[in-house]
Amino acid sequence: MTSARRLALRPDSLASLSAQVIACERCPRLVAYRRQIAAVKVRRFRDDDYWGRPLPGFGDPRARLLIVGLAPAAHGGNRTGRMFTGDDSGDWLFRALHGAGFANQPTSRRRDDGLELDGAYISAAARCAPPGNRPLPSELEACRSFLVREIALLEDLRVVVALGRIGFDAYLAARAAAGRAVPRPRPEFRHGGETELEEGVVLIASYHPSRQNTQTGRLTRAMLDRVMAQARARLRRGAG
User: Fold this and answer.
1) Distance CA 82, CA 110 (A)
2) What CATH topology corresponds to 3-237?
3) Burial class of residue 23, CB neighbours in 10 A (0-12, 13-18, 19+)
4) What contacts 184, CB < 8 A, 6 or more positions away?
5) Residue 108: is it exposed, middle or buried by C-beta count within 10 angstroms (0-12/13-18/19+)?
6) Are 83 and 123 within 8 A, CB to CB?
7) pLDDT digit string (tens) for 116-138?
8) CA-CA-CA-CA dihedral for 64, 90, 106, 143, to nearest 10
9) DSSP codes of every residue in 112-148
């Protein structure tokens, strides 16, 4: 085995963590649901081979920006095998990331479509597609250790963009679980709101680019673009 291969598989590496995420079966309800979706499919994707497993985070291991979402979509990430890939939420997110210089292309339709992130890493509060897009508190808690370890492994992080209240709360809970300071009083979720944390990290809140938000106008493309531009500006002048 080459030294590079040994390094990639060391217990504290992102590659090792990704393998553990993919193999996870901690939550019986989520295991059953993601497998059912992958077997039954929907008509428009009936010829696709669904991933049907938990999703690890992905992106630049030297990322200074972390995006924390909610969970894989049943026919998005649960089908394609990559966060925010193959659904409308991903179309919105990667367009904004591309516009701010964090992605090499504005779309993400398949795992092999050539997408690369530059200085950014994408994760989520839950790693399996949940029924109704609503993971249970116990399921979020079961996934928390994965986010805790990602935060520890992404040593260059300076800005975190939390998509939605669940992503926002998940990141703060992961910080607390890792023994890092969480401000008191606890920060309130507010679109575009910034919270300066210890270690020179800034937390920025954003509405999630779900259909519920984008189709009702609660979140517009301009609003999401501004959040990503905000993250880029904080990195340029030094977060924290």
Assistant:
1) 8
2) Uracil-DNA Glycosylase, subunit E (3.40.470)
3) exposed
4) none
5) buried
6) yes
7) 999 999 999 999 999 999 999 99
8) 20
9) TS---BSSEEEEES-SSPPGGG---HHHHHHHHHHHH
C-alpha distances out from residue 129 to 50, 74, 121, 158, 192, Å = 12, 5, 19, 28, 27
Q: DSSP per residue over 174-238, as a string?
A: HHHHTT----SSPPPP-TT-EEE-GGG-EEEEE----HHHHTTTSS-HHHHHHHHHHHHHHHHH-
| Cα(101)–Cα(113) distance, integer angstroms | 18
Tokens of 60: 């630049």
Predicted confidence band of residue 160 (pLDDT cuts 50, 70, 90): very high
| DSSP states along 42-85 | -GGGTTS----S----EE-TT-SEEEEES---TTTHHHHSSTT-
Tell me which residue of 225, 183, 214, 1 sits closest to 95, measured CA to CA. 225
pLDDT at 91 over 80: yes
Residue 34 is predicted with a pLDDT of: 96
Q: Report d(CA 95, CA 104) in Å as an integer.
A: 10
Per residue in 184-239, pLDDT tens?
999 999 999 999 998 899 999 999 999 999 999 999 999 999 999 999 999 998 75
Q: What mean pLDDT comes out for the span 31-40?
A: 96
- Residue 232's φ and ψ, nearest 5 degrees, are -65, -40
pLDDT at residue 10 greater than cutoff 90: no
208 Ramachandran zone, left/alpha/beta (phi>0; psi -120 to 50): beta
